[in-house]
C-alpha cells in the first residue's frame, strides 16, 4: 500500500515539472524557427534526391560498362574458339597433305613413272589424239627403211674417224702439258645419240667426254645436291668440285676456323699447308679466292691445250681444225679441202667418286633450261649409264626390237616440226627419257618389230601425258628399280626424283609453245612421214588419210 501511494505521488510530481507553463520563454521560440527547419529539411531532401540520381546514374554507367566488358569478353572468347577451330582445320589439312605426300612417294617407288593405259586406248588423252591419223605398219616400215636405215653406215664411219683423231689429239695434248702442274687428261669416251645408234638428223655430231684429274698431290672432292646439304631447286642436278690436297681433311680442321695463338701449332697441318696463296689455286683452275673448280677456267685451259696439241700434229693431216661455236667451248670442226666438214664435241669432265657419273663443264642447253647458277656449279651427266642400260636391256628384247626405231621416228618428227614452226622446249634427251621409262615398264615381248606402230603410239601418249602434268622424271635419279648389274650409285637412287619439266611451271610461254608444237606435230605426222615414204598401194595402207603441210 505505501508503495502504491509513493508511485502515485511520483507521477504527479513529474507531470507538474514537465508542464509547459513552467518554461514560457523556451516554448515561445518554437513557432519562430519552424519555417527555417522546414526549409532546411526541404533543401536536405533535394540534395538527397540529387545524390540519389547521381548514384543511380553511376550505377547505370557501371552496369553499361559491365555489359560492354562482358560482351567484349564474349567476342574474345568466340574469336578464340574460332581461332582454335581454324588452327585445328589448318593442322588437319597439314596432316592430310603430309599423308598425301608420303603416299605419293610410296606410289612413285612402286610405280616409278606411270606409262598410261593399254596400247589400243586411243582416247585416254582426250582432245590431243582426236582426229589424228596414225600411219600403219606398212607406211612406218617403208619410212624407216628409206629415211633412217641409210644413215646407220654413215654414223659408223664417222664415229671411227672421229675417235681415231681424238685419241691422236689427246696424246699430243698430254705431251704439251706440264705433268707436274697441268691437269692429267685421260682417254675420251663416246656418249649420246651417235653412240646409242638413234641419231637421225644431220649434221651428225659425235659427243666425246674427256675425264681429267688434278696433278699430285691434289685431288677432287665432289659434292652433289643430294649429298645432304640443302640446295635450292634451281641447283638440283648440279654439284661442286673442291680442290684439296690428298692428305687434307676435306671436312676442315679447327685450325682453319679458329685463330691459334702465336705459341700454338696444329699437329695435323703445318703452317705452310694452312696458308695457301690465291695464285696457286688459280693455277689449279679454281674460282678466284676459293678452292672450287671453275668450269670457265677449265674450258679456257682446255682450249689452249687443244690448240697447242693441234699445232704439234697438224702436219700429219690434210684438213683444218677449228672451234666452231663460241657458246659451246668444246665444239670442234674438221674442215676438208673438198669443202666437207665433220663436227664433234670434246668436253672435259670430272669423275664422281669411283662411278661413271661425271661432272660436265659445259652442257648443251635448250630454250627450256635455265642458266647455270655459277661457274663453280657443274652439271651431272649420266650418259654412260644411259648407254649401258640401253645395251643391257637390248639383250633381253626380241631380235630387231623396235625401241630404237620408235625413238628415231619420234626424234625425226619432232625435229622436222621444229624446222617448220620454230624450236620448242622439248629436246631429244626428253624423248630418250620417255623411251627409257617405257623400256623399264613394258614386257620384253612388247618390243617385237611388228609392234612398232603400237609402241610409237605409247611413246606419244606418254609424252602428251607428261606435258599435260608438266612432269617428266629423270630416269636414273630417284629410280629404285635400276638394274643392279649397272653398278649405279645408290646415293642417286635414294634421291628425290628430278622433274625435267619443272622449268615449264616457271616459263609458261615456253610451255605453251612446246604444247602447240607437239599438237601440230601430231596433226602433221602422216604428211611428214609420207613425204619420205615410197608409194604404197592403197590396199596396203588401210585407208590412211593423206595430209599436206
Automatic annotation (TrEMBL):
Coiled coil: 38-72
Keywords: Cell membrane, Coiled coil, Glycoprotein, Membrane, Nucleus, Signal, Transmembrane, Transmembrane helix
Cellular component GO terms held in the UniProt record: nuclear outer membrane; plasma membrane
Keyword Transmembrane helix: yes
Residues covered by the Mab-21-like HhH/H2TH-like domain: 404-477
Signal peptide range in chain numbering: 1-20
Gene3D superfamilies: 1.10.1410.40, 3.30.460.90
One of the record's GO molecular function terms: protein kinase inhibitor activity
Transmembrane segments: none
Main location: membrane
Membrane topology note: Single-pass type I membrane protein
Subcellular localization, as worded in the UniProt entry: Cell membrane; Nucleus outer membrane
Function: Enhances Ca(2+)-mediated inhibition of inositol 1,4,5-triphosphate receptor (ITPR) Ca(2+) release.
Family stated for the protein in its record: Belongs to the ITPRIP family.
Listed name of the protein: Inositol 1,4,5-trisphosphate receptor-interacting protein
Organism of origin: Cephalopterus ornatus
Gene: Itprip
Amino acid at each position: 500500500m505505501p508503495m502504491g501511494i509513493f508511485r502515485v505521488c511520483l507521477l504527479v510530481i513529474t507531470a507538474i515539472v514537465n508542464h509547459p507553463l513552467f518554461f514560457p520563454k523556451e516554448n515561445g521560440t518554437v513557432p519562430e524557427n519552424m519555417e527555417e527547419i522546414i526549409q532546411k529539411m526541404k533543401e536536405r531532401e533535394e540534395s538527397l534526391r540529387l545524390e540519389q540520381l547521381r548514384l543511380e546514374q553511376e550505377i547505370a554507367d557501371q552496369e553499361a560498362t559491365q555489359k560492354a566488358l562482358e560482351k567484349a569478353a564474349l567476342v574474345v572468347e568466340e574469336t578464340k574458339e574460332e581461332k582454335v577451330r581454324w588452327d585445328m582445320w589448318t593442322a588437319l589439312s597439314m596432316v592430310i597433305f603430309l599423308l598425301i605426300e608420303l603416299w605419293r612417294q610410296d606410289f612413285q617407288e612402286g610405280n616409278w613413272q606411270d606409262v598410261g593405259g593399254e596400247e589400243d586406248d586411243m582416247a585416254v588423252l582426250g582432245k590431243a589424239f582426236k582426229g589424228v591419223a596414225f600411219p600403219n605398219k606398212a607406211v612406218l616400215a617403208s619410212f624407216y627403211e628409206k629415211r633412217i636405215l641409210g644413215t646407220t653406215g654413215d654414223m659408223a664411219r664417222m664415229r671411227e674417224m672421229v675417235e681415231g683423231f681424238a685419241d691422236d689429239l689427246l696424246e699430243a695434248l698430254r705431251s704439251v702439258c706440264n705433268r707436274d702442274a697441268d691437269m692429267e687428261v685421260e682417254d675420251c669416251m663416246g656418249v649420246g645419240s651417235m653412240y646409242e645408234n638413234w641419231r637421225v638428223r644431220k649434221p651428225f655430231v659425235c659427243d666425246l667426254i674427256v675425264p681429267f684429274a688434278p696433278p699430285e698431290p691434289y685431288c677432287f672432292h665432289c659434292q652433289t645436291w643430294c649429298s645432304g646439304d640443302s640446295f635450292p631447286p634451281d641447283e638440283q642436278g648440279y654439284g661442286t668440285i673442291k680442290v684439296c690436297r690428298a692428305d687434307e681433311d676435306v671436312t676442315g680442321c679447327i685450325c682453319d676456323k679458329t685463330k691459334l695463338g702465336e705459341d700454338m701449332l696444329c699437329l695435323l697441318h703445318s703452317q705452310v699447308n694452312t696458308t695457301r696463296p690465291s695464285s696457286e689455286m688459280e693455277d689449279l683452275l679454281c674460282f678466284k679466292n676459293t678452292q672450287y673448280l671453275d668450269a670457265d677456267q677449265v674450258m679456257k685451259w682446255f682450249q689452249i691445250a687443244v690448240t697447242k696439241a693441234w699445232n704439234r700434229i697438224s702436219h700429219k693431216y690434210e684438213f683444218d681444225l677449228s672451234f666452231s661455236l663460241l657458246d659451246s667451248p668444246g665444239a670442234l670442226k674438221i674442215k676438208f679441202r673438198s669443202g666437207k666438214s665433220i663436227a664433234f664435241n670434246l668436253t672435259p669432265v670430272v669423275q664422281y667418286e669411283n662411278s661413271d657419273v661425271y661432272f660436265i663443264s659445259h652442257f648443251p642447253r635448250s630454250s627450256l633450261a635455265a642458266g647455270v647458277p655459277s661457274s663453280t656449279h657443274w652439271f651431272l651427266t649420266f650418259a654412260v649409264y644411259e648407254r649401258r642400260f640401253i645395251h643391257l636391256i637390248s639383250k633381253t628384247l626380241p631380235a630387231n626390237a623396235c625401241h630404237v626405231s620408235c625413238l628415231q621416228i619420234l626424234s625425226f618428227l619432232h625435229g622436222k616440226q621444229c624446222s617448220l614452226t620454230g624450236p620448242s622446249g622439248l629436246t631429244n634427251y626428253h624423248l630418250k627419257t620417255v623411251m627409257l621409262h617405257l623400256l623399264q615398264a613394258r614386257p620384253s615381248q612388247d618390243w617385237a618389230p611388228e609392234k612398232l606402230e603400237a609402241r610409237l603410239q605409247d611413246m606419244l601418249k606418254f609424252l602428251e601425258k607428261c606435258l599435260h602434268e608438266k612432269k617428266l622424271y629423270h630416269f636414273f635419279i630417284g629410280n629404285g628399280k635400276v638394274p643392279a648389274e649397272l653398278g649405279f650409285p645408290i646415293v642417286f637412287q635414294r634421291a628425290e626424283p628430278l622433274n625435267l619439266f619443272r622449268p615449264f611451271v616457271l616459263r609458261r610461254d615456253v610451255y605453251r609453245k612446246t604444247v602447240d608444237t607437239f599438237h601440230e606435230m601430231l596433226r602433221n605426222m602422216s604428211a611428214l612421214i609420207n613425204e619420205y615414204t615410197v608409194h604404197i598401194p592403197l590396199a596396203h595402207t588401210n585407208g590412211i588419210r593423206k595430209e599436206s603441210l
